């Protein structure tokens, strides 16, 4: 980048034109600590709280308008992907797995592989902290990023919260508290920012501390207003202030949005034990930036994890689809399997392109939306790959 940008440019080119993913990275890496994520708004947003010295870092790393997926492929995998034949990006191995600890598997979103990997990494001292999503104790209906430094903190994970969590904002704490080896779990946009940090090798100390990245498949995130509306309209709760506990995937897998209120009552929003709220209710509240995002399977992560929505001939439906993309990812999963944290079997991941709505939404609908937006000259992120509306392989 020739000319150094400042926060004002980020404001103008990303925030004000709806391209911010709320990943939190700018707040996590600003060298003079003058960006805060404002959590008081409906959606977490970066705001400037001091005088910018125009170092350009936040603008350079931000994944809001620029996601150089091809450059990232070359950096991570040392080759370009075959867009038509590698619909899930580049990976070495695909598995389906679950956490061997029953309590983790049963309290997880899918099969608990993500939490089991973190558990393993913390216990085996592969990392000294993990950046993950946690519940906000002061507002128990909202999520916040957290750093887990003990296995007990990851053993009961936030199950797939369909709201954006600015995980990368806590990179600042990683730096301040001198964590040396961290694992990060995030959506593809969190991973894009971390990979851009690696690509530009800055901030160096943080880049050196990132030991692995686990990416979650992500069809979209929803505006919190969607959750609030569903809680009030379908859950018949007067105000979110009544909520003392939330679970986006409560009950029988794959689960449903469920809230416990101050009167001690637990109620399911939409029909109990079903997934309809995701598709019927909240999906109408998809974040606008997510409608322009084309990475579903966290294509730049070391390991990517998602649901398996096709039927599996096993008694327990809780499995995690697990794509092992890099050597680091391979080392981690092998350690976790060999040491008994994870049980896994080989799995043909190509079924994932048709087993849910995520891949279709990202690779066809959103790709087409990018073409439309460009036609109207509307603000549009760049993913480097030219949209190709190829049918499913
Ligand atoms: C917003 C979102 C959309 C998703 N969309 C799809 C999809 O379309 N198709 C699909 O197959 N899978 C999707 N997933 C992934 C899936 O729901 C599971 O997270 C994944 O299968 C891992 O399951 P697990 O049981 O191994 O993870 P667990 O062991 O349950 O661990 C879950 C991890 O997810 C983290 N987490 C929860 N909510 C968030 C959040 N909002 N932002 C960042 N981190 C979070 C927690 O911190 C925890 O570390 C989505 C996940 C999220 C967060
Ligand atoms: S770095 Fe992330 S939070 Fe900051 S402006 Fe860019 S997309 Fe938004
Ligand atoms: S000092 Fe640098 S990182 Fe911080 S706001 Fe200004 S340009 Fe962004
Ligand atoms: S859809 Fe894309 S931009 Fe939205 S949360 Fe998921 S990865 Fe981030």
Stretches with pLDDT under 50, minimum 5 residues = none
- Alpha-carbon distance between the termini? 38 Å
Strand order within the widest sheet?
Answer: 5-4-6-7-11-12-3-13
- Most strands sheet: 8 strands, mixed
Q: In percent, how helical is the residue content? A: 25-40%
* Bound ligand species: flavin-adenine dinucleotide, iron/sulfur cluster
Number of strands: 13
User: How much strand content do the residues show?
Assistant: 15-25%
**Tally of alpha and pi helices:** 15
What can you tell me about this protein's structure?
- By secondary structure, the chain is α+β, with helices and mostly antiparallel strands.
- The chain has three domains: 7-67, Alpha-Beta Plaits; 69-220 and 287-359; 224-285.
- It has 15 helices and 13 strands.
- It has helices at residues 7-15, 25-29, 57-61, 69-77, 102-106, 113-123, 151-154, 171-176, 188-200, 204-209, 224-233, 276-281, 327-338, 352-355, 358-375; strands spanning 35-38, 45-48, 93-99, 129-135, 143-148, 182-186, 210-216, 243-250, 256-261, 266-268, 303-306, 320-324, 342-346.
- The protein has an eight-stranded mixed sheet with strand order 5-4-6-7-11-12-3-13. The chain has a three-stranded antiparallel sheet with strand order 8-9-10. A two-stranded antiparallel ribbon has the order 1-2.
- A hairpin with a 5-residue loop joins strand 8 (243-250) and strand 9.
- Helix 6 packs across helix 13.
- The longest helix is centred in the last third of the chain and has 18 residues, at 358-375.
- It starts with 6 loop residues before the first helix and ends in an 18-residue tail after the last helix.
- One iron/sulfur cluster (SF4) binds at residues 21, 164, 187-189, 218, 220-221, 287, 289-290, 293.
- One iron/sulfur cluster binds next to helix 1 and helix 2.
